[in-house]
Amino acid sequence: MYQTRIAGVGHYVPENIVTNHDLEQYMDTSDAWITERTGIKERRFFTENKDTTARMGIKAAEQAIERSGLHKNEIDFIIFATLSPDYYFPGSGVIVQNEMGFPNIGALDIRNQCSGFIYGLSVADQFIKTGMYKNILLIGSETQSNFIEFSDRHRNMAVIFGDGAGAVVLSRCDNTGKGILSTHLHAEGKYAQELINYHPGTRQKIRLTFDMLTDGSLLPYMNGNMVFKHAVVRFEEVILEALSANHLSPDDIDLLIPHQANLRISQYIQKRLGFPDEKVFNNIQKYGNTTAASIPIAFSEAWEQGLIQPGKLICIAAFGSGFTWGSALIRM
Ligand code: UT7
């Protein structure tokens, strides 16, 4: 069996910065509340006719491919993780395939929300390990600011989410103990209703009604408290599961890159694992929660800051809607 290594990383965030103070103008919230409850100070929102989920993904992908040293034509599969695709169908992966001028390689969209990047990484890893593909482009990209309502009734979600994209190029390598050591994936669908966007789904004969435009039922719903309580348990559990599967301990991890859901969640995990600050990478302060894009954006920034050097053991972990969660251990 082959092994999978991360050959290149990249990210793109829209130029439009929206601060907590900006949000104060639209709803009953405050910089103090948002900072204290989430750690977020600002986020990026897409610019219409410039940024789309696919286009932001393409910008991140171009950077990842360039940094990998590969030629675009060496990529033989695309995986695109998002909960906010350009269209209801087809997926955004095919848009990337077309707009980046790839030949007719396969493109798979992953619908696993905050865990989407880790689910995508795991799928790519299986394809590469078995020899089916050699180089896979994995993108996480989100445009969330246009399905949030900037109002009092949606303030618990409006202040958290942001837009952006990250990408990695995954490449086949010999089995020398480097690369992706393991991925662990989980789901608990009985909590699907706790973080959900019901409409316009397919359960109703008339999928979009006039009432939905005003009564708030088109907006995503989140039981923030419940998500938080499950997240702190599952994050720790799935990180320890990864370590145990590899006969490693928390001390062996050089850098933890958690999905950027809430700074308090990251800090709680940090405390539970006994990590010093420099072992946990956080950038939610600048970007908010970018769902499937948060880990690859953070990975790319950590790499730019020189925190991801050859030989280092990196752990990524995520939890979110579904509920779904997962982890991966990567030896660089
Ligand atoms: O990416 C994975 C999925 N998402 C997550 O992991 C998010 C997990 N959950 C969270 O991060 C937190 O639950 C939130 C940040 C969403 C909310 O923080 P919280 O400490 O759980 O607050 P809460 O929902 O218990 O609300 C406390 C109070 C409420 O007021 P009352 O009922 O005590 O009067 C809310 O109405 O805060 C109020 N509130 C706000 N106040 C100012 C809710 N949102 C806001 C807001 N500004 N934006």
Give an account of the 3D structure.
There is one protein chain. This protein has helices spanning 20-24, 31-38, 53-68, 92-99, 116-129, 155-158, 210-215, 224-245, 263-273, 284-287, 294-304; strands at 3-12, 16-19, 42-45, 77-81, 106-110, 135-142, 164-173, 179-187, 195-196, 221-222, 255-258, 313-320, 324-331. The chain starts with a strand and ends with a strand. The protein folds into two domains: 3-173, 3-Layer(aba) Sandwich (Peroxisomal Thiolase, Chain A, domain 1), CATH 3.40.47; 179-331, Peroxisomal Thiolase, Chain A, domain 1 (3-Layer(aba) Sandwich). Helices cover 33% and strands 24% of the residues. It is built from eleven helices and 13 strands. Helix 3 (53-68) packs across helix 4 and helix 8 runs parallel beside helix 9 (263-273). The mean pLDDT is 97. The protein is of the alpha/beta class and 332 residues long. Strand 12 and strand 13 (324-331) form a beta hairpin. The protein is globular. Bound molecules: oxa(dethia)-CoA. Oxa(dethia)-CoA binds at residues 29, 33, 37-38, 114, 155-156, 159-160, 195, 224-225, 227-228, 231, 261-262, 289, 320.
